[in-house]
Specification:
Length: 343
């Protein structure tokens, strides 16, 4: 008479073979379609907030940002990806910029940016609070004045007697300005500081009027249209490969050093709370379409990678070994052996 343990081991072999066959060859696609449908059917009965607590979700998102954002792989990929991107751009003449980015959203973006008067006013207002910016604006205005005076001088030099007069006036103006610049805390120095602020305000006014009145939007779109028909490869003319790599590394460092800041945690928590407020009462299955997924897409993605992984695990014996390790405790358990023994 066959011993219960021997029967159990034969049943275990049959069960392992059955499961391996279920996930192998053509049968795998049928099993995935069946199981995905079954899982989504179950998911359609489960409310999201009933199985996921908001604090758990916050911690998960924080962990993803911390672990993935600071992973060595991501850090090493930044520079390599930048180099690869530049090489591809440099050699790609099959596509134009207009093929990659549609004109309509670009126009909408520019309209929005130029129409954000509140932001523009605030930025210009804050600029007036910086003495250094005021100095830069003053030098900018001075440069315009210098160029204008030099142009007038060149024109006047062509008229007998007028050239020397203009030259004298120009030199006097330059001398007065230099005196003002050297006059530290004197009255003239204070006037120079006020002049810088005045220059900044005049510059701000010019910027404000240009953004609101001048056809800046049309000019920007004309600039876009000039480039939209050019190959994507033309973008490399704006920066070198090292420039792109440096920029990518700098942006990565900003993201890397920012991700664990307390305020970022506040933003993440707020984002999770908004997500729960909007989708917390959805079933797990109902959330799939909101994520752009469907039953067919889920099955397709599993079948895209699953068969190759399963076949590799089957060839080296790992698949059958794993299945056996999980089923053996059941088949060789005392209750099962007792049933097989007729007890």
């Amino acid at each position: 008479m066959t011993e219960p343990r021997e029967i159990a081991e034969k049943l275990l072999d049959l069960q392992v073979d059955f499961i391996v066959a279920e996930v192998s060859g053509d049968r795998f696609a049928e099993v995935i379609a069946r199981d995905v449908e079954a899982v989504i059917g179950v998911a359609d009965t489960i409310i999201f907030r009933d199985v996921v607590e908001i604090d758990q979700a916050k911690q998960t998102v924080a962990n993803v940002i911390d672990l993935i954002g600071g992973s060595p792989v991501l850090g090493e990929m930044v520079g390599t990806l930048a180099d690869s991107l530049y090489d591809d751009i440099a050699g790609n003449t099959d596509y134009t910029l207009g093929d990659v980015v549609d004109r309509e959203p670009v126009e909408q973006l520019l309209e929005k940016l130029f129409g954000m008067h509140q932001a523009q006013e605030r930025i210009l207002e804050r600029l007036t609070e910086s003495p250094l910016i005021a100095t830069v604006a003053a030098k900018f205005v001075d440069k315009l004045v210098d160029d204008l005076m030099e142009t007038n001088k060149q024109l006047a030099s062509k008229i007998p007697g007028v050239g020397s007069l203009v030259s004298m006036g120009t030199n006097a103006a330059k001398t007065a300005r230099k005196a003002a610049e050297k006059a530290g805390g004197t009255f003239i120095g204070e006037m120079a500081g006020k002049g810088a602020q005045f220059a900044l305000k005049r510059t701000n006014n010019a910027i404000r009027e240009m953004l609101r009145d001048a056809p800046v939007h049309d000019a920007a779109m004309e600039f876009w249209d000039l480039h939209a028909g050019e190959p994507v490869a033309g973008l490399r003319e704006y920066l070198s490969q090292q420039d792109l790599k440096d920029l990518a590394q700098i942006v990565y460092q900003i993201a890397l050093t920012t991700r664990n800041k307390e305020y970022v945690g506040v933003l993440v928590d707020q984002g999770v709370e908004v997500f729960f407020e909007k989708y917390g009462d959805h079933t797990l299955a109902a959330m799939l379409p909101e994520l752009g997924l469907s039953e067919a897409v889920v099955a397709e993605e599993i079948l895209r990678y699953g068969p190759a992984v399963v076949e590799a695990a089957k060839r080296n014996g790992v698949l059958a070994k794993l299945i056996r390790e999980r089923l053996e405790p059941f088949f060789l358990s005392e209750p099962v052996l007792a049933v097989l023994a007729g007890n």
